[in-house]
């Protein structure tokens, strides 16, 4: 069975300075259109069910509309996902206006909400982020009601106690909010969940779960509670079920292990060995619960 999901980082640049992000330290690479074209032509990716585009901030990538259209054509069975901070309403609307309706209908926009307004702005490192997110969501909803939007909450020591408030804000926006966990990098020192933060987060997750009507949302909340409690953990899909691709034009193993790489023509180098990947991050990896 070939990979089901391909996650493409288009560039490292971003107008935000999220506390838990290290893209700003990774250079100025931006995926070359010719490399993207070659990636889309790989026969082993024909059966993809999902292609995501992120960054950095993908709305800054000059060829974003072309990339989405190219992916829609190359992978006719794949859902398309755009992971953006929605920091600029005009850019987001401009992109959507430039896409054919058939591509828009396959598109899901994923963004982040890391707390109520002041907490979200602090986590993003950019004043006005919460207002911009709200404005973009409202504008997209009004002009493109068929475009799917969802939010994630990256849980850290700084915002763990705000989960429930973020969840209610997302609810007011009419959007689902799924909890996520930290991927350690050079900027995450002091942000990992300590005992008190885990307790606060779990309380917020339970409170949201009590009020949650949607089974999909409830499943996300339960999965996060399971992860906090130490299990259950699913199998790892890195290098087999999902592939990651960097702005430098290489595959890499997973968000935890960006330095384990394979060139464009050799994705098979990332396939798990017998017994699966066993890295220093694997035992505590939330991606084993949520592919
Ligand atoms: S919006 Fe994304 S890429 Fe930009 S700083 Fe935040 S986490 Fe990093
Ligand atoms: S850290 Fe390990 S378990 Fe998690 S995605 Fe990477 S290889 Fe898989």
Please, could you describe this protein's structure?
This protein has 291 residues and is of the alpha/beta class. The protein has one domain: Alpha-Beta Barrel (TIM Barrel). The protein has nine helices and nine strands. A nine-stranded mixed sheet has the order 6-5-4-3-2-1-7-8-9. Helix 3 runs parallel beside helix 6 and helix 8 (195-211) packs antiparallel against helix 9. Bound molecules: iron/sulfur cluster (2 copies).
**How much is the radius of gyration in Å?**
18 Å
CATH homology superfamily: Aldolase class I
Shape: globular
Low-confidence stretches: none
Protein traits:
291 residues; alpha/beta; 9-stranded mixed β-sheet; globular; binds iron/sulfur cluster
SSE topology:
Blueprint: E1 5-9, H1 33-40, E2 50-54, H2 64-74, E3 79-83, H3 89-98, H4 101-104, E4 107-112, H5 117-124, H6 129-143, E5 148-154, H7 163-172, E6 177-180, H8 195-211, H9 215-228, E7 242-245, E8 250-254, E9 257-263
Parallel strand pairs: 1-2, 1-7, 2-3, 3-4, 4-5, 5-6
Antiparallel strand pairs: 7-8, 8-9
Helix pairs in contact: 1-2, 3-6, 7-8, 8-9
The protein binds iron/sulfur cluster (SF4) (2 copies).
């Amino acid at each position: 069975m070939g990979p089901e999901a391909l996650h493409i980082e288009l560039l490292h640049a971003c107008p935000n300075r999220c506390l838990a992000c290290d893209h700003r330290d990774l250079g100025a690479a931006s995926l070359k259109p010719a490399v993207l074209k070659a990636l889309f032509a790989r026969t082993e990716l024909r059966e993809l069910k999902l292609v995501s585009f992120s960054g950095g901030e993908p709305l800054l990538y000059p060829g974003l509309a072309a990339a989405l259209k190219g992916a829609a054509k190359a992978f006719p069975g794949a859902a398309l996902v755009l992971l953006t901070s929605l920091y600029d309403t005009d850019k987001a609307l401009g992109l959507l206006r430039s896409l054919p309706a058939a591509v828009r209908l396959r598109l899901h926009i994923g963004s982040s909400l890391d707390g109520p307004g002041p907490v979200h702005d602090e986590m993003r490192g950019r004043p006005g982020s919460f207002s911009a997110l709200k404005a973009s969501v409202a504008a997209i909803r009004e002009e493109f009601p068929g475009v799917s939007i969802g939010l994630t909450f990256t849980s850290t020591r700084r915002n763990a106690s705000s989960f429930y408030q973020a969840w209610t804000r997302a609810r007011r926006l009419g959007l689902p909010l799924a909890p996520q966990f930290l991927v350690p990098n050079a900027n995450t020192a002091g942000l990992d969940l300590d005992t008190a933060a885990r307790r606060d987060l779990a309380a917020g997750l339970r409170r949201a779960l009590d009020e949650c009507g949607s089974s999909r949302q409830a499943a996300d909340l339960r999965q996060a509670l399971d992860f906090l409690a130490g299990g259950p953990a699913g199998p790892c899909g890195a290098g087999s079920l999902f592939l990651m691709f960097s702005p430098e034009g290489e595959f890499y193993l997973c968000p935890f292990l960006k330095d384990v790489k394979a060139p464009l023509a050799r994705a098979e180098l990332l396939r798990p060995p017998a017994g699966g990947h066993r890295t220093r991050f694997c035992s505590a990896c939330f991606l084993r619960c949520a592919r």
